[in-house]
């Protein structure tokens, strides 16, 4: 009998399991993959996420894996530049973008060291119920016989297509249609740093260095362009750079060498999913997913994984009931993630509405406000404070924006 079973051992599941085991709870974690292994990802960890790795004693392992430090951000939205870097968060003055084959192994090994029992290549086929509560899982390790494990609570950290979510019938809410699709790969021969540029014709590209002396290079286009893109992905991938930033397009063709195949990523709609019930909870993409354009997936997985572990520990320690603890986890998660969710789904449209065009245009005229905006992107500045009407008044004043051009809220 376990206190907690965690299904899924990557960016959301491993922190939950590790943090609970460090507090003395008996934890089983299962995953259908084996480690080290790769996963589709932006690799981007914001300073707010890195601060959690630092608190858990794992950030040095990411750095020691020769993950490049990034200390300059180059954001351009339809000609509006935001260049610089966010103020430090918990002393962290850089961002890191580790490949998942590196990061996920660090996380799983940390869980093991904490005392978590880990079963790799384990596929969950069903949940075990008793009197309406989830009390365990059934599944197989490789081609072995079916096994059953029981626990006080089961955590689904098993991604978009969560088996745990499906078995408990967890419905979606606050759904916003996915606007785009992504192709990405890894290029050597480039010394670009971090770029995040949205151009006209609803196109975006991003690039940042990662492990192995390569840059992750990605493009996003709107869904209506998918059919054309699939006809010649290589040519269309390069054409996005030519359209958005011709000079970088030329450098990509002349200096860059693609080291791996292009990888497509057609992601689901943005959503929240009902993430708790009798004996179960969801975390990471299993319970909440948004467009990858802002790179907040892994950072939110860390933040929400820690939040869930705290609440489960309170329940297992007798401070509150498990049902109350899990309900509070979801309430706090939804409240704290709302600004990033709103900003991400707006940016994912690859257009700028009049409100964002006015605000970002004013912010870009001041390095002070640019730094604060980059701080919001990094997780160190509250979005609702930065975009509050009184604060926008100061931004517009500093930029000298005429009264008739000031917009204070989205239309």
From TrEMBL:
<dbReference type="GO" id="GO:0071949">
    <property type="term" value="F:FAD binding"/>
</dbReference>
<dbReference type="InterPro" id="IPR036188">
    <property type="entry name" value="FAD/NAD-bd_sf"/>
</dbReference>
<dbReference type="InterPro" id="IPR002938">
    <property type="entry name" value="FAD-bd"/>
</dbReference>
<dbReference type="Pfam" id="PF01494">
    <property type="entry name" value="FAD_binding_3"/>
</dbReference>
<feature type="domain" description="FAD-binding">
    <location>
        <begin position="2"/>
        <end position="334"/>
    </location>
</feature>
<protein>
    <submittedName>
        <fullName>Dehydrogenase (Flavoprotein)</fullName>
    </submittedName>
</protein>
<dbReference type="InterPro" id="IPR050407">
    <property type="entry name" value="Geranylgeranyl_reductase"/>
</dbReference>
């Amino acid at each position: 009998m376990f206190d907690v079973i965690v299904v899924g051992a990557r960016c959301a599941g491993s922190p939950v399991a590790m943090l609970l085991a460090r507090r003395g709870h008996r934890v089983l974690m299962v995953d259908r993959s084996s480690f080290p292994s790769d996963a589709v990802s932006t690799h981007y960890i914001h300073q707010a996420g890195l601060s959690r790795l630092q608190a858990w004693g794992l950030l040095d392992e990411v750095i020691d894996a020769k993950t490049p430090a990034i200390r300059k951000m180059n954001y351009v939205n339809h000609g509006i530049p935001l260049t610089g870097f966010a103020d430090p968060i918990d002393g962290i003055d850089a961002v890191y973008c580790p490949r998942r084959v590196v990061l996920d192994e660090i996380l799983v090994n940390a869980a093991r060291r904490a005392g978590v029992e880990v079963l790799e290549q384990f596929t969950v086929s069903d949940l075990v119920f008793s009197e309406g509560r989830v009390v365990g899982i059934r599944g197989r390790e490789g081609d072995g016989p079916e096994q059953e494990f029981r626990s006080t609570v089961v955590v689904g950290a098993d991604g978009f297509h969560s088996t745990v979510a499906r078995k408990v019938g967890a419905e979606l809410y606050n759904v916003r249609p996915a606007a785009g699709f992504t192709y990405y790969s890894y290029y050597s021969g480039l010394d670009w740093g971090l770029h995040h540029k949205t151009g006209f014709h609803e196109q975006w590209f991003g690039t940042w260095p990662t492990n192995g002396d390569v840059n992750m290079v990605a493009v996003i286009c709107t869904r209506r362009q998918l059919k054309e893109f699939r006809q010649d992905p290589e040519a269309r991938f390069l054409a996005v750079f030519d359209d958005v930033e011709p000079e970088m397009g030329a450098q990509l063709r002349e200096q860059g060498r693609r080291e791996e195949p292009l990888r497509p990523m057609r992601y689901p709609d943005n959503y929240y999913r009902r993430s708790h019930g009798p004996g179960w909870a969801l975390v990471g993409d299993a319970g909440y997913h948004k467009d990858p354009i802002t790179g907040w997936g892994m950072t939110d997985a860390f933040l929400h994984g820690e939040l869930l572990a705290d609440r489960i520990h309170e329940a297992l320690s007798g401070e509150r009931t498990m049902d109350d603890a899990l309900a509070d986890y979801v309430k706090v998660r939804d409240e704290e993630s709302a600004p990033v969710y709103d900003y991400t789904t707006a940016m994912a449209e690859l257009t700028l509405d009049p409100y964002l065009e006015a605000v970002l245009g004013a912010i870009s005229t001041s390095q002070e406000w640019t730094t604060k905006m980059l701080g919001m992107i990094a997780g160190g500045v509250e979005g609702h404070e930065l975009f509050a009407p009184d604060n926008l008044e100061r931004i517009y004043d500093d930029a000298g924006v005429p009264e008739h051009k000031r917009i204070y809220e989205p239309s």
